[in-house]
Every structure is written in C-alpha cells, then in structure tokens.
Design goal:
4-stranded antiparallel sheet, Helicase, Ruva Protein, domain 3, alpha+beta, 260 residues, 6 helices
Length: 260
C-alpha cells in the first residue's frame, strides 16, 4: 500500500529520468481510466521533455516542458525505471514481478522505460491533475496548516477518518494513521472536535516523528505497532490487548490501554 513515504521513494527514482525526452506513452484501459481513452496518454506525452519531479501526498508529479503528468499508484502500484523498482515490495502487495502486471508508462529517448507495475489494476495516470482537491502534503507540514486541516467545529469525524481524508491532509494511509495515533496515545475513534490542546500537540509531534522514523526505516509498514497488528496481538508498549475496529472504512488496530 504505497503511502506518502513510498511515493517519495518513487519520486527519487523518477529523478533519474529528469532531462529525458518522451518518445511514446503506453497505458492499458485500467491505467488510463481517468482519461477519455488509453491512446490519449500517448498523444499527450509524446515529445515532451521531463524537467523535474514533485509530489502531493500520494500523487507523483512529473514536470515537463508541457503539461504536468500525474501518477497515482492505488493499492499495489510500484514505479519502475527499467528493472529498478522504487520499492522491493509492498507490505500488502504481491512480492513478485510479472510482465502482465505492467499497466503502462513512458518510453524515453535514451532507451529507458519508466513503468507502472500494478497487480490490482488501481493505478492511474493523469494529465495536468487538479491539485486543489488535495490538502497540504504531510511531509514538512506547518503547525498552522495541521490545525486548520483537523478543524474544530462540532465533534467532527473520527480522528483516523480525518487523518485519512486526502482533501484535508495529503499522504497519510491506513498504516501511517494507525502508527501516528499509536505514538500519540490517542484512540483513533475519538471525534476530532473533542481533542484538547495537549492532545493536538501530541498528535502533531507524533506525525512528524512517525514520518521521520519510518522514512529512515524504509516504509510505512515498519511502525512500532506492526508486530501486534494481528488478531490477538498485544501492545508492544504496555502488553495490553490490541483492539480492532473499522474507522474511516479501514481496518484499525489500537491499544486498549494507552490509546485514549
């Protein structure tokens, strides 16, 4: 499940093709689902030169001398440049490569190919994606932007549901949301409107710590709570039983003792 840390890894890989001109684009009907038709990808990208890379949350952006190209990776998408992948494997994805799982990509003038490998067929390409639908990127997020994203009117949604809302905060997925709440000591079901100032500060601190620590470790699946993310698991911090709930439509693990 690529989250912001995985997409940042993809962005660094994409940096290796900056400066190359695109000879052709390829997209199957799944990858091109947000376009009028698959051939629209080739028509839009042919002849463009890649001038840079950026990212907003889980959306990878290829800057060109024409329109910006957007790459979304769904649940199991991995970026590849030739045989080099942005990640060895995704935690919940298949740990293997199959040629039939290549959904499309770009042919470059230097004979290299930038590819999207996606067994679940949920990755998408976009031309000039609308960034207004996304909140601020969570890496390097300012405290004022964080507070604005949480909101404070009424009880509001559950904390984890708010963290997963990409229109509020771009980049947090299921694993990061659980790890952030675990480190902050907060019940992910808590309505955001009930968080007091100390809890908001703890949450903001946990957000930064989680991104830095898991970034160094190598991905969203390497959090402190992962060993207990199983039915019958015990909290690695205090040994209390882990509870399971559905929050924001996602399976959620949290400690029955220290997360309140």
């Amino acid at each position: 499940m690529p989250e912001v840390l995985e997409i940042e890894s993809y962005r660094r890989l994409a940096e290796t093709v900056v400066g190359a001109r695109i000879l052709a684009g390829h997209a199957d009907r799944y990858l091109a689902k947000k376009l009028d038709q698959p051939v629209a990808w080739d028509r839009a990208v042919r002849g463009l030169r890649i001038t840079g890379t950026s990212r907003r949350g889980k959306l990878l952006l290829l800057e060109t001398d024409g329109p910006t190209l957007g790459l979304r990776f769904g649940m199991t998408g991995v970026l590849m440049v030739e045989s080099q992948a942005g990640l060895d494997a995704l935690f919940y994805g298949p740990h293997e490569y199959r040629a039939e799982w290549i959904r499309g990509g770009l042919d470059l003038e230097d004979s290299r190919r930038l590819l999207i490998h996606d067994p679940r067929r949920l990755a998408r390409v976009e031309i000039a994606p609308d960034l207004d639908e996304l909140g601020p990127d969570v890496i390097g997020l300012a405290r004022a932007d964080f507070d604005a994203a949480l909101g404070a009117r009424g009880e509001g949604p559950a904390l984890k549901a708010r963290l997963l809302d990409q229109s509020r905060l771009a980049g947090i997925g299921n694993l990061l949301a659980d790890e952030i709440c675990f480190r902050a000591g907060l019940d992910p079901r808590t309505p955001v409107g009930r968080l007091d100032a100390a809890q908001r500060q703890a949450l903001f601190r946990a957000l930064g710590q989680t991104l830095r620590t898991l970034g160094r470790r190598g991905g969203s699946h390497l959090g402190d709570h992962m060993e207990a993310r199983t039915p019958g698991g015990l909290c690695p911090r205090d040994g209390a039983p882990m509870r399971i709930a559905t929050v924001g439509g996602r399976t959620t693990y949290y400690c029955s003792a220290h997360q309140r």
